[in-house]
Design a protein that fits this description.
The protein is α+β, with helices and mostly antiparallel strands. It contains four helices and five strands, in the order E-E-H-E-H-H-H-E-E. Helix content is 35%, strand content 25%.
């Protein structure tokens, strides 16, 4: 019997990952939790801040706004933020928007 997937929590200072393990979980009790911090890069934090204020921003707009980041760099960081559960794309590429998940 496996354990539940890790949970992610972003508190502004970093991303917390909660892992469940131990016998207590197998018996239906909440069990032991362990938190680890995954720091976001400065660029990823800048992207999050920008998307909170400008949810309709395009990759091109992010590239023009955030210094020292190529369009490929923006694409990589957006994918990473999506995989971490911090942002979600709502709607189509054209006409959709970014939702920052808190």
């Amino acid at each position: 019997e496996g354990y539940p997937e890790p949970e992610f929590d972003y508190d502004g200072g970093g991303l917390w990952t909660v892992f469940y393990f131990g016998e207590a979980h197998k018996n239906g009790i909440s069990g032991t939790t362990q938190k680890t911090t995954q720091k976001l890069s400065k660029k990823q934090e800048e992207i999050l801040v920008y998307l909170k204020k400008n949810p309709n921003a395009s990759r091109k707009e992010l590239t023009e706004t955030i210094t020292d980041l190529t369009e490929d760099g923006v694409k990589y960081n957006l994918t990473r933020l999506k995989n971490l559960g911090l942002i979600q794309r709502v709607g189509p590429d054209k006409g959709g928007y970014w939702r920052v998940i808190e």
